[in-house]
Amino acid sequence: MSALAEALDRARDAGDLLSGGDFSQETAAGLDGAGLDFRDCRFQSCQFRDCDFSGAAFYGCAFTDCLMERCRLPAAYWKDCRLSGCKWDGADLRRSRWKDSALEETLLRYVNLTGGVWEHFSVKNCDFTESAMSEMRWKKVTLSKTDLTGAELFRTDLSGMDLTSCTLDRIVLSETCRELKGAVINSAQAAVVARILGIRVAP
């Protein structure tokens, strides 16, 4: 049994709390971390496959250069957390809530974030290609150099957002593009939005 699996078993015995764990180069498959509280844990170069963290809560945790493959994290809560250099393609993060947290240089392609909440949240150099990001609530969110190619943003209010450094090709919006009302975009991105609206822009 891996050190992480043993730590999760101890956490179950300690009232579903795992505090202060420091895990490096762990490989875990099929772990059950559903409903656990993770506090001030560090994960470095770990690989998770087919693991279940449904409804888990993460406080002050950091994931660096970690892989999440076919993992389930719906309705998870994240506060004061940081993901850096990770690959979480295809993760299930529906209805997850992130507060006072940051994502940097992380791949989140084909991720399901539908119905989630981002509050005081920073995203930099991340890739959300073809991800489901509909009906999210964003408050004081910053996006920098982030790829949203093909992302579904239906009914996600982007007002007040500076998206000028982001890639918006093939994003999915409502017919009126109301999601972008009040957002800041550049001239090239405006042409993308015009195509969504069916408007032909003359050269």
What's the SSE blueprint?
Blueprint: H1 3-13, E1 17-19, E2 22-24, E3 27-29, E4 37-39, E5 42-44, E6 47-49, E7 57-59, E8 62-64, E9 67-69, E10 77-79, E11 82-84, E12 97-104, E13 117-124, E14 137-144, H2 187-196
Parallel strand pairs: 1-4, 2-5, 3-6, 4-7, 5-8, 6-9, 7-10, 8-11, 10-12, 11-12, 12-13, 13-14
How much β-strand is present in the residues?
25-35%
**Order of H and E elements:** HEEEEEEEEEEEEEEH
Structural class: mainly beta
Q: Give the number of helices.
A: 2
Q: Biggest β-sheet: count, sense, barrel?
A: 11 strands, parallel
Distance between the termini: 63 Å
Global Rg: 18 Å
| Unreliable spans | none
> What value does the average pLDDT take?
93
Beta-strand segment tally: 14
Q: Tell me, what's the shape?
A: elongated
Percent range of helical residues: 10-25%
Give a quick rundown of the structure.
By secondary structure, this protein is mainly beta. It has helices spanning 3-13, 187-196, and strands at residues 17-19, 22-24, 27-29, 37-39, 42-44, 47-49, 57-59, 62-64, 67-69, 77-79, 82-84, 97-104, 117-124, 137-144.
Fold and architecture overview:
The protein is mainly beta and 203 residues long. Helix content is 10%, strand content 28%. It is built from 2 helices and 14 strands, in the order H-E-E-E-E-E-E-E-E-E-E-E-E-E-E-H. The strands form 2 sheets. Strands 1, 2, 4, 5, 7, 8, 10, 11, 12, 13 and 14 form an 11-stranded parallel sheet that branches. Strands 3-6-9 form a 3-stranded parallel sheet, with no helix packed on it. The longest helix has 11 residues. The termini are far apart. The model has no long low-confidence stretch (mean pLDDT 93).
